[in-house]
Specification:
Length: 207
């Protein structure tokens, strides 16, 4: 049994958005779509500090994408089975089965899904990124798939490749010898919105 997951070290993450850019380009994402956002707690805009000027300012950052949960709310409410969990733990979408009802968007507590009401638009007139990046289909749910096509080639998700702080760790959470398992065992971690009961497989190391 394999359960793939990711850990992000918030001590070394500098909120530079390299993960966001790598993900967007390699997955040839449509205009306005971001799978991997760096969330800050000061407001709705990027890199917004929290607190009161001048003595209580801090920038709390958290990269957020699909958490590939073990008990995914999106799968539980999908009426057609289009949202499902693969044998390796990745939460995937069968675009042929998806009817674009948006139930998964309403159920997901992480706000990481989108449905294109119209044919997706792009910034350039040719595809970018990986040659086998997934298609983005109108009237169909879309989200991070942990770069499944890259995994099949023995590579890591695109968001890891450009991280200048080396803040991301990856691997099989059920293998105690994997990179991610060893990293989590040595550090204090938390999971985002764990109270939602989704059992996310993305971890944030805070100490």
């Amino acid at each position: 049994m394999t359960r793939l997951g990711m850990a992000i070290d918030l001590r070394t993450c500098i909120a530079c958005h390299a993960c966001t850019v790598a993900c967007k380009v390699n997955n040839n994402l449509p205009a306005g779509t971001i799978y991997n956002r760096v969330q800050t707690e000061g407001g709705a805009y990027l890199d917004t500090a929290a607190g009161t000027y001048p003595n209580d300012i801090q920038r709390v950052k958290r990269p957020v994408s699909c958490q590939h949960c073990s008990n995914p709310a999106c799968v539980n409410v999908c009426p057609t089975g289009a949202s499902h969990v693969l044998e390796n733990g990745i939460v995937a979408i069968d675009t042929d089965a998806c009817i674009g009802c948006k139930s998964c968007i309403q159920a997901c507590p992480y706000d990481v899904r989108v449905v294109y009401d119209e044919e997706p638009a792009y910034f350039v007139d040719h595809a970018l990124g990986d040659w086998d990046a997934p298609a983005h289909v109108v009237k169909t749910a879309d989200k991070c798939g942990f770069c499944a096509s890259r995994l099949e080639r023995g590579e890591v998700p695109a968001c890891m490749d450009l991280c200048p702080g080396g803040a991301r760790y990856w691997g099989d959470l059920d293998d105690p010898e994997s990179e991610i398992s060893k990293f989590l065992a040595e550090n204090t971690w938390e999971r985002y919105l764990e109270e939602a009961g989704t059992e996310p497989n993305c971890y944030y190391v805070v100490a």
